[in-house]
Amino acid sequence: MKRRRSFGVKLWLWFVLFSAAIFLVLWLLQTVFLQSFYNSMAIHSAEKAAREIAERSADADFYSVIDEAAAANSLLVFVTDADGKILYSSDEYKRLYGETGQEEHQSDNPWLSPDEVMNWEKGALRNLPYSYKAFIEKLAASGADSVSFVTEDNTAYVTGSVLGGGNVLYISMPLGTVGGTVRILRLQLVWVSALSLVLGFCLAWVISKRFERPVAKIADSAKQIAAGNYHPELPKGFCAELDDLSDTLGETALSLERAKNAQRDFLANVSHDLRTPLTMIKGYAEMVKDISWEDPQRRESDLTIIMREADRLTALVNEVLDFSAMQSNHVPHEYGIIDLSRAVRDVIGQFAPFCEQNGYVIETEITDGVTARADEAQIKRVIYNFIDNAVNHTDESKKIKVSLTAGDGSARFSVTDHGKGIADEEIPYIWDRYYTARNRKNKAVVSGLGLSIAKEILMAHGAGFGVDNKPNCTFWFEL
C-alpha cells in the first residue's frame, strides 16, 4: 500500500519547492540572463538617446544635449562632417573636466606630451573608434538616414544618423561590461542562497507544524463523531477557513445525532404500530377459528377488522418503501400539463367518507381551470399528505381549509388547520424523515414520513414550499 504523506509534510515540501524555485529564478536572472537583460536595456537607452540628440541638432545648446546624454547613458558620441572630420565628441567622463581649463588639465596629466592639444572646446578628446568606418559603410549601404548594429566582436552597440547639413551623428555604447558584476553577484548569491534556504527550511517546518495542528484536531474530532461522540471539542481561531470547517463539522454532527435519534424513534414507533395491527389480526383470526366460525354475522365483523388492520399494515409498509425508493431516485416521474383544480377536488373527494363519519369539515377555495406542469399522481400524493397532516392536527372544531389560486405564472396550493400550531423549536425539523410532532391530535398509525415524502416530490418538481405558523398553521407549495 502506498504510504501517504501527512498534511504537514506536504505543506513543508511545497514550501521548500517554492523557495527553491524562487532562488532558481534569482540565479537565472542575476547570472545567466543578466548580460542579455543589460544588453537589451543598453540598446534601448542608446536608441532613445540617439533620437533625442538628432531631434535637437538645430538647438543652440546642441553640444550640451550631447554631454548630458553621454553622461546619463555611458555613451561615446561623435559629430563629424561628411568627410569624417570630428566636429564634436563626448563621453560619460566629459562633464568631469568641464569645458575650459585645458591648460590646467594638460599640466596635471603625465601621459600627455607637451605639444599634444586636447581642444576641449571643440570636443576633440580622442580619435574616431575603429567601428566608425563600419558605421559609415552600413549607413551608405542602407540608403536610410540612420543605422544600428552590434559590432562583430559583440563588445559594443553602434547607432547613428545623418543630421542637418550633411553632418553625421555616431553613438557607441559598450556591451559585455557586466562580467565582473556577475562574478560578484554569483559569490554573493551563494551565501545568500545557503542562508536563505536554511532559514526557509526552518520557517517551512514551523509553518507546516502550525497548520498541521488544527487540521489534526479537526480530523480527531471527525473520528470521534464517527465513533458516536456528537459533541467533540472543535478547534477554532486559527483561520477563517478552518473555523468554517469546524462549524460545518459541528452542524454535521448535530444532524447525525438528530438523524440517529429520529431513526431510533422511528423504529420504536414503527415497531409499536406494526405490533398493534399484527396483534389484532392474529387475535381476530383466532376468534374466527375458535368462536365465530359458525356465527356468520360475528364472523363477518371479525373478518372486516382483520382486513382493515391488514390494510393499515400494508399502508405503513408501502409508505416506508416508497420513501426509500424516492431517496434512491428510483421513482420515475411522468411530467405533463395537468388540471390542478380537478386534482385537488379528486383528493378532497377521497376524504369525504372519513369526514362524514368523523364530523370533519373541509372548506374549499379553489380557482377553476388552474393548470401546471407536474406528475399528477405524485402531486396528488403531496396534496393528500398535506390534508391528512391538517386533519391530524386541527382543533376540536374539526375544520380545515383548502385553497388553490393562480397568478404570475404559478399555482399556489395551501392547507390550513385550526390547531395549536407548531412549536418554534420544531419548525426546522418538520420535513425531516421519521419526525412526528409531539402535539398531533390523531393517534392513528403515522410513520412520520408524510411530509418527508411530500418534500422529496416537491424538490423533484423544483417547486417552492413551506409552512406559515401564524395565526394558524398553513402548509403550502407553488408550481
Short key terms for the protein model shown above:
5-stranded mixed β-sheet; Helix Hairpins; 5-stranded antiparallel β-sheet; Beta-Lactamase; 479 residues; 4 domains; alpha+beta; elongated; 13 helices
Write the layout of secondary structure elements.
Blueprint: H1 7-32, H2 34-55, H3 62-73, E1 76-80, E2 86-90, H4 94-97, H5 102-108, H6 131-142, E3 146-150, E4 156-162, E5 168-174, H7 179-226, H8 240-290, H9 296-327, E6 336-339, H10 340-350, H11 352-358, E7 361-366, E8 371-374, H12 376-393, E9 399-407, E10 410-417, H13 450-461, E11 464-468, E12 474-478
Helix pairs in contact: 1-2, 1-7, 2-3, 7-8, 8-9, 9-13, 10-12, 12-13
Report, as a whole number of angstroms, the end-to-end distance: 53 Å
How much of the sequence lies in strands comes to 5-15%
Approximate shape: elongated
In spatial order, strands of the major sheet run 2-1-5-4-3
- How many separate structural domains? 4
CATH architecture of the largest domain: 2-Layer Sandwich
Helical amount: 40-55%
Look at the helices and sheets and give the structural class.
Answer: alpha+beta
CATH superfamily of the largest domain: Histidine kinase-like ATPase, C-terminal domain
Please provide the count of β strands: 12
Largest sheet: 5 strands, antiparallel
Q: How many individual helices?
A: 13
Q: C-alpha Rg, in Å?
A: 48 Å
Write the CATH fold name of the largest domain: Heat Shock Protein 90
Rounded mean pLDDT score: 77
Order of helices and strands: HHHEEHHHEEEHHHEHHEEHEEHEE
Determine and state the CATH class of the largest domain. Alpha Beta
- Low-confidence segments, given as residue ranges, are 99-125, 437-446
